[in-house]
Design a protein that fits this description.
By secondary structure, the chain is of the alpha+beta class. About 35% of the residues lie in helices and about 20% in strands.
Amino acid sequence: MMKKFWKKKEHHPTTRRQKYLMLSGATTFLIVVALVLLNVLTAYLTEHYPISVDLTPEKVFQLTDQSKEYLSELSEPVSIQVLTSESNFVGSGEYYVQANEVLKQYAQYSDQITLEYIDLLENPSLLSNYEDVQIGDIIVSSARRSQTLTAYDLFNVESGSYYGSYITSSKAEQAMTSAIMNVTSETQVKTAIFTGHGEQYPDGFAELLTSNNFEVTSLNPTVDEIPEDVDVLIWMAPTNDPDQEVLDRVDAFLSQEGKTLLYFADTTQPELPRLDAFLQKWGISVELSSIVETNNNKVINMNPYFSTIQISDLTLTDTMSDTSIPLTMPFARPLEQVFETNMDISTTVLLKSSDTSSVIPYDTDSADLENWQPEEYGPFPLAILSTKTFDDGETSQVVAYGSSVSLSDSLLQSGSFANADYYLSVMNTLTHRENVISIQSKTLGGQELGLNTAQVFTIGLIFMIVVPIMTLGCGMYLWIKRRNA
């Protein structure tokens, strides 16, 4: 009889070394998986949320709290279309890199905003879908209206003597937030620019107002009544004296609460006795002389008729982003404050020339001009606010300025002077506009990391694939080395 012998299977206990190797391998695997997931999560968050870190001192690549607060309350869809590819846009220079980063944040801070790059070079047929635009322009639109922004809207540009125009600072955030406000606003302040008396037409100022949610129209008061819905009249250096009927229409306009007349004088104007008499009733006199600066340290471009001025009253500077940036009123006529208070009308000097300025009378001939010596020094008033107060406390106002040249296109686009910021603040304050923001222009003081699409893809590839593979390789190497130890 055969006996079966059963042999028990031997169980070898796991050694300490094997436990260590298994734990090490598992740990390495988990670290690699965690790194891959972290990179995927980072890429997703960067794409959908503003989590980038701006290390520049002035935070030039970040939106200000004013814009963030406004975007958080935005309740209707807004489309931002950049009419070029993103790579072409940022390839135009460092300031375009900054503007591009600002653009992206609008879509990140509000789910109501969509950002789209449309390459018209690759799709020229699309150009017919847009009117009066160029490659690189930005169209901001809503269901109400649309607005087109150009490089001159995004940046402050100076004209150099040798190298043409160049960008001095960025106002991309101010332009974009204002455009979004403009296209989503339910109402607009209506402004009428007078014509019919040889006036100058302030194209740059009209464009500035339009881009900041003002409705701008032209009006000839010799043939047309002033519409009731007009809030502000702008009268730019008329060379023909208006008749009494026109002045009566202006007077009737200013007899209504909340109405404003902005008057700009110019050294090319002749005597206008009827208009001068009308202004004097409001406590303002425009003198028949020219402001000249005698201190060469305050002269601009070696022109004594072109100098910086002083803000003497901050009444109309509420929405200025920076009152320390100088103002200028070239080729200005001095004003005179006829009275400070007269019944229901009071006057305030807003701007004045320096204490080293003087005046040259109109009747000074060329021979006397060569040997001219100052007889009187400033400061002289260059802007006067005249306010009429009604029984209920409401007001209407006339603001007179001694220089129409202060509204020239070049000065309104200049980053060296605050003329655009100042005049926009004047309009905002006088019309009691709400939801108005003022953001200071930003200068790139150092070098920033400007990345195009290819570079972003390469960096993403490195961190999402190359780095994890290298980490896995190092872990495997250590595991094999310890296993064979």
